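Milestone 3.1: sequence recovery, worked example.
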């Protein structure tokens, strides 16, 4: 505590001594002279005329200084054609939880590995390859992924996500005959 007080007093004394009355330097007056314009001489056959250099900025190939470098790094690391939340996992990592059919627009629900559920319809994009849901059946969902072969041909890869069978499902019993289905 005593050292801190001594330091503060020392800085206060040094500040008052250093801020003593000092004379400001005088600025010499500049006398402006009228500009002399010299007409360019006609060059002889042996003289070389050098044009003055005019600078021009070319932003081509340079980074925009107003964009975030973090956003640029994220954009270069993700080469996925799809930017939706369902496109962050591979198709085999999703589990089909439920399907609602019997309507003109069937709906299904998938669950990602983190346990979050998503409602999907036809033409919903999902999977890291940017596949589209093309068909929703009562027990499966078909996702079609498009890829281009080295020869330039476009190929379709249909992938089916199936409902897992319910283990606690009780078999149907015909009450008149006693048969289990």
């Amino acid at each position: 505590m005593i050292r801190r007080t001594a330091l503060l007093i020392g800085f206060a004394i040094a500040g008052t001594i250093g801020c003593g009355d000092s004379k400001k330097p005088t600025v010499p007056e500049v006398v402006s002279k009228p500009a002399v314009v010299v007409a360019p001489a006609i060059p002889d056959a042996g003289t070389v005329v050098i044009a003055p250099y005019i600078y021009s900025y070319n932003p081509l190939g340079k980074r925009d200084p107003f964009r975030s470098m973090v956003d640029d790094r994220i954009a270069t690391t993700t080469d996925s054609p799809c930017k939706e939340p369902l496109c962050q996992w591979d198709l085999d990592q999703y589990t089909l939880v439920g399907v609602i059919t019997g309507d003109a627009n069937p709906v299904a629900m998938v669950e990602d590995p983190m346990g979050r559920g998503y409602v999907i319809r036809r033409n919903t994009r999902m999977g890291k390859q940017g596949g589209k849901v093309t068909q929703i059946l009562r027990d499966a969902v078909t996702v079609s992924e498009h890829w281009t072969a080295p020869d330039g041909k476009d190929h379709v890869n249909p992938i089916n996500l199936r409902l897992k069978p319910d283990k606690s499902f009780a078999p149907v019993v015909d009450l008149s005959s006693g048969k289990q289905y």
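The helical segments are 2-18, 69-77. The chain has a mean pLDDT of 79.
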